[in-house]
Specification:
The complex is a heterodimer of chains A (140) and B (305). Chain A is mainly beta and 140 residues long. Chain A has helices at residues 20-26, 63-69; strands at 9-16, 36-44, 48-55, 74-79, 82-87, 94-96, 117-122, 127-130, 136-137. Chain B has ten helices and nine strands. Classes of the chains: A mainly beta (140), B alpha/beta (305). The interface between A and B is medium-sized, with 15 and 15 residues. The complex binds zinc ion. Zinc ion binds next to loops of chain A.
Chain lengths: 140, 305
C-alpha cells in the first residue's frame, strides 16, 4: 500500500478534518485508476486533527478548489521518493465550476450551460460572489 | 476594446462627470447632436416589459438620428423558443451597433456583453442593477443643485429591496461631503451589506431614522421609493406604517425651499399628486433627464465624436 511511501505521486496534507472525503470526490479522485488513500483524523500539531490524501501518481489538481476549501492545505509533489515541490494553494481570484449559485433569480438558474463563476470580493474574509448576480457563495 | 455598461461602478467618477457634461451640452445645443448616430442602430432587447425605460432608450436614439429595432417582451422574441442570451447577443451583433437589454434574471446583460461584439447597456436585470436609472438620478441632482458634492441626501421608503437607492448611495458616496439620511420602517431598512460595504467601509456619514417629518428640515435631496404591501409579513404592520412614508404637502412644511424631490417612477401613491405642481417636485424633469443621459451614454459607447 501507499500509506508508507510514495515513489511518484502527490500528498495533500493539512486538509481540515472531515473534509478529506469531500475533496476526494470534488477532485475526481474516485475516477482515478491508481492507488489513492484517504487518511482521516490524523493527529496534527497545529490543528489537532487533519485529513490527508495520498495519490500514487502525479496528476493535475484543481488548485482553485483546494485554495477555496482551505488556503492552509499543502500539496507535496513526490518524484523518485523525494519531495520535489511543496505548493500552498492560495485563495483564487475566480472560482469556475467549484461552487454553484443558489439564487433562483440568477441567470444561471435558467441557462444550464453557463459556467458558475465566483469572484473573490473580500480576501480577508474569504468572500466569493457570483459573477452574474453578486450573491455570496458560502463555504460548502 | 468595446465598452459596456452593466453596473454603475463600471464607470469612474470622471467618466460619470463627463457623461453629465455631454448630457448638459445636448440640452443646451440639441441641434448639434441630431445627426450624430445617423446610420447607427440600437437594439432594444426587452425580455420583460418596461415601457418607460424602453421608450427612453428609443427616443434617445431617434434624437441622435439613429434607428431602433428589437422586441418589447419575451413572448415576441426567440427567447420563447429557448435561445440562450449568449446566442441572441451574438446574432444581434450582426444587425445592430449597440444593445440595450432588460431581463428578469440577474446577470443576463453581463452574459450578453461577454458574447456580443457590440456594446451592451444593462437596462435593468431583475432586482439587481439598473445603471441608467442611477445616471438619470445623478444628472437630475446635478441639474437641480448644480453640484454632486456637499449634499444631504434623504432616501425614503423601501430601502431594503430598493435597488435604485442602493446604487444611488454607491454612486453618490464617491463624491465629497455627501451625507445620507436613511428613512424607512425598521422592517425595510438598508441591508447590512450596503451599510458595511458601501457606507461604513468608505467612512460615509449617515443616519437611520423612521420619521420622514423629523428628517425633512435638513434634506437637500429627497429620494422617494414605494413601500409595497407584499414586503410586509402581516397586514397590520403595513396598514400602520404605510401613511408614514407617503409624501403629502403637510410633510413638506418644514422642508427647505430648494429641496429636490426625486422618484424613479412609476409612482403608485407614495407621492401625493398635490405635490406635482410644487417646484420642488423633480420627478417628471427626471424622466426627461433620463433621455438626455442615455443619449450621452450611447454616444460614449459608440465612440461618436
Ligand atoms: Zn448568481
Amino acid at each position: 500500500m501507499i500509506i508508507g511511501t510514495i515513489i511518484d505521486g502527490i500528498v495533500i496534507d493539512h486538509i481540515p478534518a472531515g473534509q478529506g472525503m469531500y475533496l476526494y470526490e470534488k477532485l475526481g479522485l474516485d475516477k482515478l485508476q491508481c492507488e489513492v488513500a484517504v487518511i482521516k483524523n490524523a493527529p496534527s500539531g497545529k490543528y489537532g486533527k487533519k485529513d490527508i490524501l495520498k495519490i500514487n501518481e502525479v496528476i493535475d489538481l484543481n488548485y482553485d478548489m483546494l485554495g477555496y476549501i482551505d488556503p492552509l492545505i499543502t500539496v507535496n509533489i513526490i518524484r523518485g521518493g523525494q519531495r520535489v515541490e511543496k505548493i500552498h494553494p492560495h485563495l483564487p481570484e475566480t472560482l469556475t465550476g467549484v461552487i454553484r449559485c443558489k439564487n433562483p433569480r440568477c441567470i444561471t438558474s435558467v441557462e444550464q450551460e453557463l459556467p458558475h463563476v465566483f469572484r473573490l470580493t473580500d480576501r480577508e474574509k474569504g468572500v466569493y460572489r457570483c459573477m452574474y448576480c453578486d450573491t455570496m457563495g458560502g463555504k460548502r | 476594446m468595446k465598452r459596456d455598461l452593466i453596473d454603475i461602478t463600471d464607470l469612474s467618477v470622471a467618466e460619470i462627470d463627463e457623461l453629465i457634461a455631454v448630457a448638459e451640452d445636448i440640452i443646451a445645443h440639441p441641434e448639434v447632436y441630431r445627426e450624430k448616430c445617423r446610420y447607427k442602430k440600437l437594439a432594444t432587447l426587452f425580455y420583460e416589459p418596461s415601457t418607460r425605460t424602453r421608450l427612453s432608450f428609443e427616443s434617445a436614439m431617434y434624437e441622435l438620428g439613429g434607428q431602433v429595432l428589437g422586441f418589447s417582451d419575451a413572448t415576441s422574441s426567440s427567447a420563447t423558443k429557448g435561445e440562450s442570451v449568449a446566442d441572441t447577443a451574438k446574432t444581434v451583433s450582426c444587425f445592430a451597433d449597440i444593445i440595450a437589454m432588460r431581463h428578469p434574471k440577474e446577470g443576463a446583460p453581463l452574459v450578453a456583453s461577454m458574447n456580443a461584439s457590440i456594446p451592451v447597456i444593462n437596462a435593468g436585470d431583475g432586482g439587481h442593477h439598473h445603471p441608467t436609472q442611477t445616471l438619470t438620478d445623478l444628472l437630475t441632482i446635478k441639474r437641480e443643485k448644480g453640484r454632486l458634492d456637499k449634499l444631504v441626501v434623504g432616501c425614503c421608503g423601501d430601502l431594503k429591496f430598493g435597488r435604485t437607492v442602493h446604487s444611488l448611495i454607491g454612486a453618490m458616496s464617491r463624491y465629497q461631503n455627501v451625507k445620507f439620511v436613511l428613512i424607512s420602517p425598521e422592517e425595510l431598512c438598508i441591508p447590512e451589506s450596503v451599510r458595511t460595504d458601501l457606507l461604513e467601509r468608505n467612512g460615509i456619514e449617515f443616519v437611520e431614522t423612521t420619521s420622514l417629518e423629523e428628517a425633512m428640515p435638513q434634506l437637500d435631496i429627497l429620494y422617494m421609493t414605494r413601500v409595497q404591501r407584499e414586503r410586509f409579513f402581516n397586514e397590520d404592520d403595513y396598514v400602520r406604517l404605510k401613511d408614514s412614508y407617503i409624501l403629502t404637502p403637510d410633510k413638506l412644511t418644514n422642508a427647505k425651499w430648494d429641496l429636490s424631490i426625486l422618484h424613479p417612477l412609476p409612482r403608485v401613491n407614495e407621492i401625493s399628486i398635490a405635490i406635482d405642481n410644487d417646484p420642488r417636485a423633480c420627478y417628471f424633469r427626471q424622466v426627461l433627464n433620463g433621455k438626455f443621459i442615455r443619449m450621452a451614454l450611447i454616444l460614449k459607447l459608440l465612440e461618436v465624436e
